[in-house]
Structure formats: C-alpha cells, structure tokens
Design goal:
The protein is of the alpha+beta class. It is built from 7 helices and 18 strands.
C-alpha cells in the first residue's frame, strides 16, 4: 500500500480543487469496481457487490491549504487558510501551487512570538510566478518512511482514500451493495459538504467514514486520549460532530474481532464525514474507522502502516457478511 499512499499524498487537492486526486483514484480503482461516476459537486462514487443493504464508505479527497487573498507590488502573497490550521511552525515551510510552483512561508518581524498570527505571515513565491488571487497552495513535502511509520503531508485523509481503494481491490464478493465515496470539501465549513450531498443521493442503510484521528501518545498530550500509533485502527465512539450509532460501532468492533485485528476505541475533538452522513434525509446510522495520526493538519503528519493495514482487514470483514437492513 506504500506506493499507493505515496501517489495519493503527492496529488494537489485543497478543498474545492480535488480534480487531481479524483483522476488518480479513478485510475487506481480501474476494473476493481463495477462502475464509477462523479456527482455535481465532484464526489467520486464507485460501487460493487450484491443487492443487499446499501453501505456507504466515505473518505475525503481534500486537504488543507492556503488561498491567495492579495498579491502585493513585490509579488508577496497574503492568504486565507482553507480548513483549520495553526500558524505556529509555519514560517520556513514550503508550499506548492498547481503545476509544481513552490513558495516559502515568511513572517514579518514581531516583538514577541505570541504576536505571530496568520496575518503576519506571507508566501514568497520567489519569482513572479503568475499567481493570482484565488489560487491555492498546499504543503510541499515528500512522503517518508521510518520503520512502520509514515511521515508526510495530507495523510488527512489520503490515508482514508488509500484504505477505500485497497478495500475495493481486495473485496472479492459481498452480499451488500457497497458504495465507495471519495468526498469533496470535508475540511471547510460547518458541514462536510460532499458527504452530505452524496449521502442524500445514495440513501444508504449504513454509513462509515474512514478518516484520521489525533493521538494521546506524545509527551504531555492534552487532552488525555487513549489512542496511540501502532495499536490498530480506532473505532470512534464520539466526536464533536457525532455520537456514533451503536449498531454500526458494534458491527465494526465485531468485524475487528473476527479479522483478529487489534483495535482501539476513540473519543476525540473535531468531526468527520460521518457527522454529515448521519443527519441526511431521515437519518443514516453512521460510524467511523479512524487512522491514528500525530501532528494533524501540519506538513509532517505521522501514521503507522500496521494501523492502515488493520483498517483494510477490519472493513473487509465488516463488508463480507450480510448486514441487516435496519
Ligand atoms: Co482534517
Ligand atoms: Zn480528515
């Protein structure tokens, strides 16, 4: 899966500009699915399986980024963040615009480090690169491997996309009707826009988002959290967008046991596509398989390959048996 993750994290895909990621995923899925289509907002929907209950798996294609709001007369760029991002640690980072144009984040001098805010930062594209207001840059970092650990940008949520692609490839037969939904615009706004509209169209009986989650295994991590790298995928209990449906959570945990995959229970801040899936139409029972990841929404997110492989095995076991309609 390492090569697949490498290709996926290389793609340039800030929220609302997911085209590169979508093209790549469609090619990776190839003939492993019965069909694919792209909906009006840009979600990529693939399907395969029997005529049993409709199960929707969702992973978001978009990543956080920097949208140019102003170009000054020397060519320095001011930006608005696309998605949630801390300004701490940004000076000196490299960012990439489409077509490989790279820039460096610089900072105005400040008296105290606490005075540093996004408003004091700018992107220096080096030359007049023809960048205009509305263009969007993402972190520019290659994927690195350190033992079982992966370090890179946009692991949120290309890891989830890689898990869905891998499940689609390995799922030989299933009695359920499975929809693999690669969503747009999870990182922006109050609602996971793509997941909401895709769910409305598909009317699934079950919804499962696959996304990254924070960990509590770094020095003095706050708030205290059980989840750690390398201890298996996490089955979410609750976050700020959703209390996961007990039926879905139970089925996911049973699948982990059946597949002999160690798993962790997760309660965390933030939200995922599942929050939107759950409140579509008259409601869809939804849960989340989470991939533990440190340093989220930064240029060097860190995850563990064993957790990612575990998530694939868990989902294959979950989909392999007939799921009840309700
Ligand atoms: Co995110
Ligand atoms: Zn995410």
């Amino acid at each position: 899966m390492l090569d697949l993750i490498d290709r996926l994290t290389r793609a340039h895909g800030p929220s609302g500009r997911e085209d590169d990621v979508r093209r790549l995923i469609a090619a990776e899925l190839g003939s492993h699915v019965e069909g694919t289509r792209t909906d009006a907002l840009g979600n990529l929907i693939a399907w395969k399986g029997g005529d049993g209950p409709r199960v929707m798996l969702a992973a978001h294609m978009d990543e956080i980024g920097f949208m140019v709001t102003h170009v000054d007369d020397k060519g320095f760029l001011r930006y608005a963040v696309v998605g949630g991002m801390d300004h701490v640690g940004l000076p000196g980072q490299r960012v990439a615009f489409p077509e490989g144009r790279v820039g460096v984040i610089g900072a105005e001098p400040v008296d105290e480090p606490k005075d540093l805010k996004h408003e004091k930062l700018f992107i220096d594209p080096g030359t007049d690169a023809g960048i205009a207001v509305g263009d969007v840059a993402v972190f520019h970092r290659p994927l690195e491997q350190a033992g079982h650990r992966l370090i890179g940008k946009a692991l949120d949520d290309r890891l989830g996309c890689a898990v869905l692609v891998e499940v689609a490839r390995r799922l030989a037969s299933t009695p359920n009707r499975v929809f693999f939904v690669f969503t747009v615009q999870e990182e922006v706004g109050l609602t996971a826009t793509g997941a909401l509209t895709a769910t409305y169209g598909l009317q699934p009986a079950w919804g499962v988002a696959v996304d990254v989650t924070d960990t509590g295994d770094t020095p003095k991590a706050r708030p205290p959290m059980e989840v750690a790298l390398g201890k298996g995928p996490a089955v979410k209990v609750m976050d700020q967008s959703l209390i996961c449906h007990p039926r879905v959570r139970r089925a996911l945990e049973e699948a982990a046991v059946a597949a002999e995959v160690p798993f962790q229970r997760e309660i965390c801040e933030g939200g995922t596509d599942a929050g939107a899936i759950a409140v579509t139409r008259e409601g869809v029972p939804a849960g989340v398989v989470s991939l533990p990841t440190r340093y989220l929404h930064g240029p060097s997110e860190m995850a563990d390959l064993r957790d990612i492989e575990g998530a694939v095995a868990l989902l294959l076991a979950f989909l392999g048996k007939p799921l009840p309609e309700s």
